[in-house]
Design a protein that fits this description.
It contains nine helices and 13 strands. Helix 8 runs antiparallel to helix 9. The chain is globular and about 60 Å long. The longest helix is centred in the last third of the chain and has 20 residues. It folds into three domains: 119 residues, no CATH class; 92 residues, Phosphorylase Kinase, domain 1, CATH 3.30.200; 89 residues, Transferase(Phosphotransferase), domain 1, CATH 1.10.510. With 326 residues, it is an alpha+beta fold. The chain has a six-stranded mixed beta sheet with strand order 6-10-11-9-8-7, with helices on one face. It has a five-stranded mixed beta sheet with strand order 1-2-3-4-5. Pfam families: Pkinase. It comes from Cladosporium halotolerans. GO terms for molecular function: ATP binding; protein kinase activity. This is Protein kinase domain-containing protein.
Length: 326
């Protein structure tokens, strides 16, 4: 029997203790698993392994080449629990699911326990059943009027099948008005502030991602962002580069990213996380700068230069080196 696709949608860990939680999709079923250290006490081996995984997944130290990875941790949990997932049932899904269907379907709240024979078991956990994501009320009150506000039921998920629509976080969507967009779930207030600057600047010709609308249950309760659709098939600059990529095309991408970044800086806008994976290559081989959430990525921008023009310039320099040397 073919098992439904399993994927980890979200992982969070506590800053106060060693507890954590996973949000998992099993076919069209959504499962939130609470992992409390005390619930693993029956198995010394499982508890020890969990704490080791948590050091890497939680970012407590820099991973070494011999370390387990985040995916290893997820596989450890999923494989240990798959027999329990098969017992869960879903309910009818409309043929063209919307974001409302995605976020408001039944979710199982389960707690992970270890058994003395070093196995996992799952039990009902109704202690933490709240849902529905981002709030960001303050930034919405200041900037929300700049973009259309849509309810999740007005946004349809683009997918090849119903199961595919629920197998991962929605990305490509269509609104009732017919517009096609990229949907971004995870975002920070800085992103709205930067997109407001972009909207108010004269950057219509610049190849950058643009915010076109907000999606939420109600004003101030934002679920995600509707970003301008870039016809790229999720091809980043890193993925587009191949050994046989011509020098002419490489120079074109360098020139486009350099020019776009200069246009942003001239308007007082900082990119914030300059790296090759935040450059998309569209179907006409044009380079677009995306992701204005800020921060930095080790190896591209130094921490002390994060969210600054100097940091952007450092990231650009390393992008140029990457393009010419890959």
């Amino acid at each position: 029997m073919d098992l439904p696709q399993v994927c980890v949608e979200e992982f969070t860990s506590s800053e106060l203790n060693h507890d954590s939680s996973l949000v998992i999709r099993f076919g069209t079923i959504r499962i939130r698993i609470s992992i409390l250290e005390k619930n693993l006490a029956s198995s010394v081996n499982i508890r020890t392994q969990y704490l080791q995984y948590l050091k890497v997944v939680g970012g407590d130290r820099d991973p070494q080449p011999q370390d387990a990875t985040e995916d290893d941790f997820y596989d450890w949990i999923l494989i240990g629990c798959d027999r329990h997932f098969l017992k869960l049932t879903s309910h009818a899904i409309p043929p063209k699911p919307t974001l409302h269907d995605f976020y408001n379907r039944k979710i199982y709240h389960l707690a992970l326990y270890a058994t003395p024979d070093d196995k996992f078991t799952l039990k009902d956990d109704q202690d933490n059943v709240s849902e529905f994501h981002s709030n960001h009320l303050d930034v919405f009150e200041r900037l929300g009027h700049l973009w259309p506000f849509l309810e999740p039921c007005e946004v349809t998920i683009c997918a090849s099948s119903v199961e595919a629509a629920f197998s991962q976080r929605p990305r490509e969507v269509v609104t009732d008005a017919g517009g096609r967009y990229f949907f971004k779930h995870n975002f920070v207030p800085r992103e709205l502030e930067t997109y407001a600057k972009i909207k108010q600047a004269n950057l219509e010709q610049s190849r950058i991602s643009r915010l076109c609308g907000l999606v939420g249950e109600r004003p101030g309760r934002i679920v995600g962002l509707l970003l301008e659709h870039i016809g790229c098939g999720s091809v980043t600059l890193s993925r587009a580069l191949e050994r046989h990529t011509s020098l002419q095309l490489r120079n074109k991408w360098i020139e486009q990213v350099t020019t776009t970044l200069m246009e942003l800086h001239t308007s007082g806008i900082v990119w914030g996380d300059a790296k090759a994976d935040n450059v998309l290559i569209d179907g006409e081989n044009n380079a677009w700068i995306i992701d204005f959430g800020g921060g930095y990525t080790r190896g591209w921008v130094d921490e002390k230069l994060a969210n600054s023009i100097d940091g952007d310039q450092q990231g650009l320099s390393r992008i140029v080196t990457h393009v010419l040397s890959t």
